[in-house]
Amino acid sequence: MDWSRKYDSDIIHLDLAGTSFVVLSSSEAAEDLLEKRGSIYSDRPTFPMYELMEWTFILALLKYGMRNSRTQRRLFNEHLNINASHNFRPQQRAAAHSLAGEIIIPITYGLDVQPSNDPYVDLAEKTTHQTNPGVSGGFLIDFLPFLKYIPEWFPGAGFQKTAKIVQKLGRDLQNVPFEETKGQIAAGVLRPSFTANCLRDLESGEKYYDETTVKEVAAVMYVAGADTTSTVLATFFLAMLANPEAQKKAQAEIDATIGQGCLPDFDDQDALPYVDSLVKEVLRWAPVVPFGVPHLVRVEDEYRGYRIPANSTVVGNAWSVLNKMYPDPYTFKPERFLLDGKPNPSVKYPDAAFGFGRRICPGQHLASASLWITIASVLAVFEIRKKVGEDEKIVEPSYEWEDGVVS
Ligand code: HEM
């Protein structure tokens, strides 16, 4: 974003060790290319590090148009589109009320999550810890692919060790919870979940997917949905510490609408426009995937007189888009989405937080609903305040974000 200001251009080109890298820093450029020209801008670069990790089943990394990538997206869309995702409201409600770990686990597998030391949460966390530096250029090998021939013992080849660890984590991610769910089904336990619903549908006849696809998509949900959603919630807590006025307004709205002693439910969403705007503002104020997931343009293209070389990595800079699109962007202001206390139709939903075009996040409706019910429930019962130290002084949060795909 700084470079786009410095060079007065919302399109920046970088040559990274021979890889052509194009960063789009305005909603206009991102929409013109990644959405309107989606037929050529929806591929993904090759990530040698993920190949070493054997993460060849992860939709976010698959080439556009490949059979497995089309089937996975279709399965995601079938179960997580705006209407179908309502089926998971019971799990979302329960997870919000217990505020236990990752909401995505009961949704994906129908498995309970323990409030602490849950083996599945632990597996998801271990995995994202190892993989988070990736896709945005955190692994040097992605720019210098010949590094993959360097043996593990060679100084600086720590990535080889990481790859081995992630290979094992990837296998566990796919198999352990999936087998547990299958075991539950075999034992007659009836718990709706993405996996159980797909396996039930498979039993009822021929489908465009098979059991392996269900297992892979479930594992993709598990990794793509865990860290992202919980990081937005962490950002929400930080935003509330920094903006007590916004918190008070949201709580006043809940008290006036729902009354005390009750928890908000999905049916109340329309009656709580300020809370709804607060959730949008959390997504906008500090997008948790600030640099998106890189796209790749297959063929040479021209845009506003610029030549964009074939096979360039093209990044929609969500951070910049979500800052430039709204006035006074650094201020946390849910009101920006409202007009006379109602949703303002002329202010755009911060959907850049979920990416762009044909690769836009297929979990966005599910994620938005999980965030809404959790944030509304927390605001209804808790007051989020800065910690007071032993010396009776307020402890200021650090307001720092970690680097990585998920920030
Ligand atoms: C607040 C939470 C979430 C955020 C901010 C988020 C953000 C993103 C972003 C920025 C992308 C890249 C889009 C692009 O390439 O332009 C993406 C892709 C993806 N997300 Fe999410 N996501 C979230 C939750 C979820 C959940 C809950 C799921 C699954 C249930 C999910 C599944 C995926 C998948 C499978 C992809 C890859 C799509 C493809 O490459 O075709 N995400 N997400």
Structural class: alpha+beta
Span of the ends, CA to CA: 16 Å
The major sheet is characterized as: 4 strands, mixed
Using the 3D structure, state the CATH architecture: Orthogonal Bundle
Mean pLDDT: 92
Under CATH, the topology can be stated as Cytochrome p450
The arrangement of helices and strands along the chain is HEEHHHHHHHHHHHEEEEHEEH
* Multimerization status: single chain
| Strand arrangement across the biggest beta sheet | 1-2-6-3
The low-confidence parts are: none
Feature tags:
four-stranded mixed sheet, 14 helices, Cyt_P450_CS, heme binding, heme, Cytochrome p450, alpha+beta, 8 strands, 7% strand, two-stranded antiparallel ribbon, 407 residues, 46% helix, binds protoporphyrin IX containing FE
Short recap of the structure:
The chain is α+β, with helices and mostly antiparallel strands and 407 residues long.
Describe how the helices and strands are arranged.
Elements: H1 2-6, E1 11-16, E2 19-24, H2 27-36, H3 48-52, H4 67-80, H5 89-98, H6 104-109, H7 119-131, H8 158-186, H9 194-203, H10 211-242, H11 244-258, H12 273-285, E3 295-296, E4 301-303, E5 306-308, E6 313-316, H13 318-324, E7 338-339, E8 342-343, H14 364-381
Parallel strand pairs: 2-6
Antiparallel strand pairs: 1-2, 3-6, 4-5, 7-8
Helix pairs in contact: 4-10, 5-14, 7-8, 7-10, 8-10, 9-10, 10-11, 10-14
Structure characterization notes:
The protein has 407 residues and is of the alpha+beta class. It has 14 helices and 8 strands. Strand 4 and strand 5 (306-308) form a beta hairpin. The longest helix is centred in the middle third of the chain and has 32 residues, at 211-242. The structure holds protoporphyrin IX containing FE. Residues 59-60, 73, 76, 80, 104, 220-221, 224-225, 228-229, 232, 288-289, 292-293, 295, 353-356, 359-363, 366-367 line the site of protoporphyrin IX containing FE (HEM). It is found in: Membrane. This is Cytochrome P450.
